[in-house]
Design a protein that fits this description.
- The structure is a single chain.
- The protein contains 17 helices and 14 strands.
- It is of the alpha/beta class.
- It has two domains: 322 residues, Rossmann fold, CATH 3.40.50; 215 residues, Alpha Horseshoe (Serine Threonine Protein Phosphatase 5, Tetratricopeptide repeat).
- Strands 1-2-4-3-5-6 form a six-stranded mixed beta sheet, sandwiched between helices. Strands 9-8-7-12-10-11 form a six-stranded mixed beta sheet, sandwiched between helices.
- Bound molecules: adenosine-5'-diphosphate and magnesium ion.
- Magnesium ion binds next to loops.
Length: 580
């Protein structure tokens, strides 16, 4: 139902442009996201948040005094890339270190971790606190696997208040961690959402039904029931949240809690107040003391109809951060001392040099190979375009439905960047490297980040001098596999693209050892890749977005495995044509 858009591919960028135009006095746009217009104090720690677009006010709406210093904003429902996160971090860095604070989704974790590693390598102290408040997404014993939803706000607030009070980064991270350990949420949905330009909803909930525990990207809920009345819903949410009181709080009686009733997009404020009326009564009856409740839209999912309830179990320290004043485009509390308005206090957004490394000219052999690489990337892009909808469908069964769109976005960017490098007479290694950078930067998400890693490792192995042979390709694919496993931590049979990359790499290496030609070895390995992708349908996902709904995915192959096999097979056709 998101009716108004121009080019759907530009939607996320255009919404940021409009958001910044509407808040020029306090917000500035930088590469990768938005930051506060006014500088942090020299030497203080700063706090960066971020995530996909389509959840406003999360995340750009929470940038400002009393809340985040900057937000990295990904594409629609896709994590920001590591490059975007680094740009935002560099723009607000005040010399006292940086705290990353974000919700627990595989794509966000991978990209923030990658950004953290890159910034640390530049000598910047970076810590991360990952919010895991959604009690429906994993059992209490596996809290680290839980997703983050509206409980992000109290954690962001705790971190930001500590940072702006001039506390050292260690303290900021400690307070944010304490907040995260005391926040619990549960959401329900009555309808799905439709992304800009899509002709059907990304996911749906049958009319008259309510899905308990559904995620903000349509990750399926735990179970479905008939939609209750407003009071019935309040009772269910309160009962389930009071069944999981975080230690050391031992009883609801006398406990002080921050309460958030969050609308997911299509629920009217009037309806929220009707539900909140009952929540207030129920919590009062159980002896809880409600502190500064928030009934609002905080983390949405386009036009999804649904709500979530969050309880933030306070102690004295956290209560101070929860009630502290804030003034951001979407969240206001109390009276804040306005930032100094002098010109010197305004952040001069230094646009990081466009990541255009000076490309070394490749040798004649390597330039010839670069043409094959480019043709393979184009073939991959076309193969994915044909299967885009199907890949989205596979991902929607237990994940969030964005795999086809994300792959297409990444490959389109990769082909564009590869073309520019080819025209600049780069060798095959450099062409793969810039294509990988462009892919991960523009696709975001888990697979975008991992494909960036795959291409960069392959590029590294091929280099820009030698004529690539099967041994170099096998070395590159093996290095890519090792890097993907080290970053994503997926094992064989966890139902991810590793289930294709692993046997593909083994087969290519075997071909090289047996002295096969590149074409022979790649073709044989591509057949194995295709079979391995198909075989993932029997597996149960153990990692990534699909894990909480493992049983729903049995019988369906893993989307990332399928797209990887499609790309390997598209490359196979090109390699056979060039016969190298
Ligand atoms: P997201 O999960 O962020 O929405 P995509 O939908 O683009 O990203 O990609 C999903 C695919 O990514 C999965 O089908 C799986 O193959 C792959 N994937 C997810 N998590 C991991 C991981 N930790 N390691 C390797 N591959 C992963
Ligand atoms: Mg996905």
């Amino acid at each position: 139902m998101t009716y108004l858009f121009n080019n759907p591919a530009q939607f996320a960028g255009e919404l940021v442009e409009g958001f910044v135009a509407a808040h020029r006095n306090t917000i500035q746009r930088v590469n990768g996201g938005v930051i506060r217009r006014h500088k942090a104090k020299p030497g203080q720690a700063v706090m960066i948040i971020g995530g996909g677009s389509g959840h406003y006010p999360a995340f750009g709406g929470f940038v400002g005094q009393g809340l985040a210093h900057g937000a990295a904003l990904g594409n629609v429902f896709a994590a920001p890339s590591a490059q975007q996160i680094c740009h935002v971090a560099q723009a607000v860095n005040a010399g006292g270190g940086i705290l990353f604070c974000y919700a627990n989704y595989a794509g966000d974790v991978l990209n923030f971790e990658q950004a953290q590693a890159q910034l640390r390598a530049q000598g910047i102290d970076v810590r991360s606190v990952v919010v895991t408040d959604d009690i429906a997404s994993a059992a209490v014993a596996e809290q680290h696997k839980r997703r983050g939803i509206a409980g992000t706000l109290p954690v962001f607030k705790a971190a930001a208040v500590a940072a702006d009070a001039g506390k050292p980064l260690d303290e900021v991270a400690r307070i944010a961690t304490a907040a995260k350990e005391r926040v619990r949420s549960l959401g329900v949905a009555f309808s799905g959402c439709t992304l800009p330009g899509a002709n059907k909803p990304l996911f749906e909930v049958a009319s008259g039904k309510m899905e308990v525990g559904m995620g903000i990207h349509g990750e399926p809920g735990l179970y479905r029931v008939d939609a209750p009345s407003a009071d019935g819903l309040a009772e269910m949410l309160v009962e389930k949240l009071l069944a999981e009181i975080p230690p050391p709080v031992d009883s609801p009686a006398g406990a002080r809690v921050g309460v958030i009733l969050n609308g997911l997009g299509a629920v009217k404020y009037e309806e929220l107040f009707v539900i909140y009326r009952k929540i207030d009564q129920l919590l009062f009856r159980r002896g809880l003391i409600i502190v500064e409740p928030v009934v609002d839209e905080l983390i949405t999912s386009f036009d999804m109809a649904g709500v979530s309830l969050t309880l933030f179990w306070l102690n004295d320290e956290l209560e101070q951060t929860w009630i502290a004043a804030a003034d951001t485009p979407a969240f206001h509390r109390g009276t804040i001392v306005p930032a100094e308005q002098s010109e010197e206090n305004i952040t001069v957004a230094v646009q990081p040099a466009q990541d255009q490394q000076l490309l070394k000219t490749g040798s004649a052999d390597s330039q010839a190979a670069a043409k094959v690489v480019f043709a393979a990337l184009e073939a991959a892009r076309d193969a994915i375009a044909l299967q885009q909808e199907e890949l989205g469908r596979l991902d929607a069964i237990a994940g969030d439905g964005d795999h086809g769109i994300g792959m297409q976005r990444g490959l389109t960017a990769a082909v564009e960047a590869a073309k520019a490098a080819l025209d600049a007479q780069a060798g095959s290694g450099a062409v793969l490297t810039v294509a990988g950078d462009a892919w991960s930067d523009r696709a975001g998400g888990t697979s975008g980040m991992l494909w960036g890693v795959v291409l960069r490792n392959l590029g590294n192995a091929l280099g820009d001098e030698a004529k690539p042979d099967v041994a170099m390709l096998a070395t590159g694919v093996t290095a890519a596999l090792e890097a993907v496993v080290s970053l994503g931590k997926a094992q064989l049979n966890d139902k991810t693209l590793v289930d294709v990359l692993y046997p593909f790499s083994a087969a290519l290496t075997q071909g090289a050892v047996r002295g096969l030609s590149t074409t022979e070895a790649w073709t044989a390995a591509a057949e194995i890749a295709e079979r391995s992708a198909e075989a993932t349908k029997n597996l149960t996902p153990k990692i990534g977005r699909a894990r909480p709904h493992a049983e729903k995915s049995i019988g369906t192959p893993d989307p990332g495995a399928v797209s990887m096999a499609l790309i390997i097979c598209a490359a196979d056709k090109v390699i056979r044509k060039y016969c190298f």
